[in-house]
Write a structure and sequence with these properties.
The complex is a heterodimer of chains A (124) and B (109). With 124 residues, chain A is mainly beta. Chain A has strands spanning 3-7, 10-12, 18-25, 32-39, 45-51, 58-60, 68-73, 78-83, 92-101, 118-122. In chain A, the strands form two sheets. Chain A has a six-stranded mixed sheet, with no helix packed on it. Chain A has a four-stranded antiparallel sheet with strand order 1-3-8-7, with no helix packed on it. In chain A, a hairpin with a 6-residue loop joins strand 5 and strand 6. Chain B has strands at 9-12, 18-23, 34-39, 46-50, 62-67, 70-75, 84-92, 97-100, 104-108. In chain B, the strands form two sheets. In chain B, strands 1, 3, 4, 7, 8 and 9 form a six-stranded mixed sheet that branches. A three-stranded antiparallel sheet of chain B has the order 2-6-5, with no helix packed on it. Chain B is an all-beta fold and 109 residues long. The chains are: A mainly beta (124), B mainly beta (109). Chains A and B meet through strand 5 of A and strand 3, strand 4, strand 7 and strand 8 of B.
Chain lengths: 124, 109
């Protein structure tokens, strides 16, 4: 069974940093593109970042560019999101989601499945 | 303001067919795969349609389609458990990233 388990969320002050992790199991992690998607309380879904299977390509939403960094460790079957210079509007549930297999273009990408999410709260 | 435009709400009675629209442009829906996600209350989203294909396990009551720069999700034989938020999404060539619709809250009356 494919499983994605996020961790690392919590309460952080504006301007602070946090590192989210996503532990993957049940599939060959190194052959899939991976993604982060967030959802602010009571709001819709917002794509955050995507990374290709061997980290050759990374993409970011304009709202997080320069502050959030996606990375992965295929030896550890793990995806990460390093968050810095955090702002109140970064408060959200952050979901890790598997993309399509590495031979698909990101233009054909999807998010399936999703983890249960981890809550990040930015507040003084 | 979302790049993809969805109606904020939709409703239907059990057994009815409802359709949710998603309007975009040539840089997203017009040239890339359109995906639909269902988010039941208090849970993570789930992929239910990619262009006109359904992932394994998704009932055939759910049907996605695309024409030009618009897409739609049709749900036939509406059931109470279909009450959820539905989101469309696609890669956008201008933004070089994924764009979502604002979401449609489906109520089963």
């Amino acid at each position: 069974e494919v499983q994605l388990v996020e961790s690392g969320g919590g309460l952080v002050k504006p301007g602070g940093s946090l590192r989210l992790s996503c532990a993957a199991s049940g599939f060959t992690f190194s052959t899939y593109n991976m993604n982060w998607v967030r959802q602010a309380p009571g709001k819709g879904l917002e794509w955050v970042s995507s990374i290709s299977s061997i980290s050759s390509y990374v993409y970011y939403a304009d709202s997080v560019k320069g502050r959030l960094t996606i990375s992965r460790d295929n030896a550890k079957n793990s995806l990460y999101l390093q968050m810095s210079s955090l702002r109140a509007d970064d408060t959200a549930i952050y979901y890790c989601a598997r993309g399509r297999a590495h031979y698909y273009s990101f233009r054909e990408n999807w998010f399936d499945p999703w983890g249960q999410g981890t809550l990040v709260t930015v507040s003084s | 303001q979302s790049v993809l435009t969805q109606p904020p709400s939709a409703s239907g009675t059990p057994g009815q067919r409802v359709t949710i629209s998603c309007s975009g442009s040539s840089s997203n829906i017009g040239s890339n795969t359109v995906n639909w996600y269902q988010q039941l209350p208090g849970t993570a989203p789930k992929l239910i349609s990619s262009n006109n294909e359904r992932p394994s396990g998704v009932p055939d009551r759910f049907s996605g389609s695309k024409s030009g720069t618009s897409a739609s999700l049709a749900i036939s034989g509406l059931q109470s458990e279909d009450e959820a938020d539905y989101y469309c999404a696609a890669w956008d060539d201008r933004q070089n990233g994924v764009v979502f619709g604002g979401g449609t809250k489906l109520t089963v009356l």
